Amino acid sequence: MKFRFEGREIQTNAGDTYASALYRAGQRIFSRSFKYHRPRGLLCVAGKCPNCLMNVDAVPNIRTCITPVRDGAEVRAQNAKPSLERDWLSISQHFDWLMPVGWYYKTFKSPVVWHAVEPFIRRVAGLGELRPGPKREYEHSWMHTHTAVIGGGYAGLEAALKASERGERVVLIDDQPELGGQARYHRSLPTELIARVRSQSSIQVLLGSTCFGLYEGNLLGIVQFNPHPNARERLIHLRAHHVVVAAGAYETPLLFPNNDLPGAMLSTAVLRLLHVHGVVAGKRTVIVGTGKRAEEVADELRSNGAEVVSVVSPADGITATGSGKVSGLRTLENSLACDLIVMCGPLVPDSGLAVQAGARLIWSEVHGVFLPSDLPPQISVVGDAAGDTLAPVTRSVAEHKRSFVCLCSDVTSKDVCAGIAEGFDHIETLKRYTTATMGPCQGSMCQLSTIGICAHQAQRSMGETGVTTSRPPNPSVTIGALAGSRHHPIRHTPMHYAHEALGAVWMDMGDWKRPRQYRLSIEDEYRAVREGVGIIDVSTLGKLDLRGRDAGKLLDMVYTHRFSDLRPGRVRYALMCDEGGTILDDGTISRLAGDRYFITTTTGNLDFVHQWLEWYLIGTGWDVTITNVTAGYGSINVAGPKAREVLQKLTDCDLATSAFPYMACREADVCGVAAIMLRIGFVGETGWELHLPAESAEAVWNNLLDAGKELGIQAFGVEAQRLLRLEKRHVIVGVDTDALSGPFESGMAWAAKLEKDDFVGKVALTEASASPARESLVGFMVTGVGVPEDGSAVVVDGKLAGRVTSCRYSPAKKTAIGLAWVPVDSAEEGARIQVRIHGKLADAKVTMEAFYDPEGARLRQ
Amino acid sequence: MSFLVRCPNCGDRSVYEFRFGGEVKQRPPLDAPGEEWLSYRYDRVNAAGVQKEWWFHRSGCRQWLQASRNTVTNEVFETWLPGKERA
Q1: Which residues in chain B have Cβ-Cβ distances shorter than 8 Å to A758?
Q2: Closest partner residue to A758 among B15, B30, B56, by Cβ?
Q3: How many domains does chain B have?
């Protein structure tokens, strides 16, 4: 396999990561630092530090040291111009005296200054940038298990086996491509243990998967990389009864001047490169450390052909030297030439997940680290994550302007000391002031050093100084993984494809697709309904079937009107308010039989209305069953002076007004299909709303179009319907009303039956009926030209006084008409108001009746 | 927020399957003083501790249920389907 890096072709070996292949190919500088653009090389080779972040296949900030190579990938450096080797902005490190700790807070106090320099700072500082690249898929999955084990090292393998032996289902998660943990680079791979884990069917192993957070209810957030060829990342939501944190310990750098030079590498990183990738990290090496770890890494390097110049103690007053990369190490006595400095730094238990679950971190002098304690039940920490085998490492404060504490945002030990001297001696304020521990590594590399310096300078113990808070996500997660796939549910009505064939222009209404209009102009659709006949798909209306002896009682309780006295075969307008008297929803209720009602709700409020009805039913003991039948019916409104003529061709039901008057309902066959027929008139013409079994709705729709062909039948869309209803001054709840509108001010006082014994909103509406409203919803007609947009301002006597909720050009009135909220003083026939049209005021006059057929004669014909 | 709610019908489920329905309260009688009605409509106890609340299992059995939950720790102690007793 091979990939391209900055235009160069890089060959890889089996098991390579981008970083290991680049290192083998001689690359030493992997990134440029955030602030000073200092060269940075491989440090941890464990995905813990910010030094190897690169742009891979157009995705920024990829930890190349743990990302397996994809054949043909395109890898680019970040934050370096023109190249990693020659980054002209590295000059900025010589101006460090201009950028002391707290520089932002001290310098950019004035918004003017900040706005002037922000674009420049954004360009030169920071991490990678997003570039357009190939489309990538992210996905989510959900898993449940009894025991989740984080970490596939020795302790994790043991814990997984133990749980499995107890009969539990186990998920074992490790961010590496193979099991074994640190044994993979210590020549002690527990092959037998791994084989046993692999052979257990009750243990599911997730490799190359990073656990970034432990949330409430033992929910683990896990990112699995490249779960299959069509997905880049999969976010797994894993619920576990028991979580075992066996994430081990990771090594952190030592503090000394120029400790950030490429070539200064952690001992575990050197061993990983050697044993996992077969790369000897240097030719002439100096090891900084004491004890067994220093000896082990020295032996390993020697036996692989590297020269170990010396093993020195971190307390020897060391300074790394070199320009662009390590060329030597100076101690108090000596100057040693070398190309690799191996740091045997403090090992820090990776117990962040336990802390996120509520554990506390307590300083242990014996182990030289903070250890998790007070674990919540269902969480355990085992192995190095619990600090079992850890020992303290000699550390120094090394106050120096090139001794880097935080590699993510270039905070030096001098900066941290300065912050403390300025009074930020509490670890949490010190963190915020210096930004140490706040970069992409989330404090992995710098937390212990920062606490160490803080404790030393403030003359407190490590325990007293304490730790900063660990929060998810750690490590960082791509927004793509959190967002998941781009699937958006879409609902089609049963006539969807018939609309498509008619050239529908679609609009979204919640999840639904509805035809906004068809091929003709909106005015042509309008004319068909007013002068001939039109049909519209109203399947998106919410539909509820109510049955039972007490159905009427329930409706009387939750709707403002009375329904228990509605005669079978009749329809009534239905208005629903809350206890505060605010309108929640409207629709129609038809009584199909003594114990059977059919409710329609607005498209968006179906679920709410259903839940509202169910809620009020609880505890009553009433005999009512509510069924949501929305998807079971396709619905068509046939309207216009010739509607009867068309529909009569398809049904034996007598449609004459004498037999089927306005606001009546019947159950009858249409085209041989059992239909619920409501004679209602939202658009203001003779019309029927047909509710048909969904599977037959498209056939009936097409039959209607055929039957009406010679009469010029026209399918009309939502936009024509809105114009038609506006001429009738019919209100759309949620468009013309809002969260403060009640029935009185909305001109629907007739729908509130205050004399009923009890109903939701009775107390508030009774109160409202006694005190005049401040505003009123009225109709208005523009007397000049122009059509105000929905939402335009209403002006009375030169003052802002209200707002337009709906407005359209009315072909009937030959001017703009609309609905508007106006002060109650203006709510009278002929009152003069002004509305804003494209920034200019236009005169309009208020009208209290419908713009079209105010007597409603056409509806009843 | 990612705690579990034990639906009496469906068992332990993620809280995201539910709609929160507010504190369990007693609707005042119609002739109660206006103050009491105002309080019923608009006031919340907002207890920092255990309270009884309504939940609707939207992505499950689509039933209303009541729960006693500690609002500080999100520990759900008990859930039940309300019978005659709404509050």
Answers
A1: 30
A2: B30
A3: 1
Separation CA A609–CA A542 (nearest Å): 9
A694 phi, psi to nearest 5 deg: -55, -35
In DSSP notation, A355-399 reads: HHTT-EEEEETTTTEEEEESPPTTEEE-GGGGTTT----------
| Nearest residue on chain B to A628, alpha-carbon basis | B62
Q: How far apart are CA A621 and CA A627, in angstroms?
A: 18
Coil, helix or strand at residue A817: strand
Residue A630, phi then psi, degrees to nearest 5: -55, -50
Quote the domain boundaries for residue B25.
Answer: 4-80
CATH number, position B56? 3.30.2270.10
In a domain, B87, yes or no: no
Rg of chain A, C-alpha, whole Å: 37
The distance of A620 to chain B (nearest Cα, Å) reads 7
The dihedral formed by the CA atoms of B26, B31, B35 and B41, expressed in degrees to the nearest 10: 40
Structural contact between residues A30 and A262, judged by C-beta atoms closer than 8 angstroms = yes
**Residues of chain A by 3-state class (helix, strand, coil), percent to 5:** 25, 30, 45
The string of pLDDT tens digits covering residues A383-404 is 999 988 888 887 777 788 899 9
Q: Could you give the CA distance from residue A698 to residue A497 in angstroms, rounded to a whole number?
A: 9
pLDDT for residue A849 is more than 90? yes
Q: What is the C-alpha to C-alpha distance for residues A820 and A817, in angstroms, rounded to an integer?
A: 10
pLDDT digits (tens, 9 = 90+) for A404-442: 999 999 999 999 999 999 999 999 999 999 999 998 888
Residue B38 lies in a domain: yes
Does the pLDDT at position B83 exceed 90? no
Whether the CB-CB separation of A329 and A312 falls below 8 Å is answered with yes
pLDDT at A374 (0 to 100): 95
> CA A702, CA A345: separation in Å to the nearest integer?
78
Q: Is residue A268 predicted with pLDDT exceeding 90?
A: yes
Domains of chain A: 2-88 (3.10.20.440), 255-344 (3.50.50.60), 496-725 (3.30.1360.120), 774-861 (2.40.30.110)
Q: Any chain B CB within 8 A of the CB of A219?
A: yes
Assigned token pair, A39: 């060269």
Q: Is the pTM of this model over 0.95?
A: no
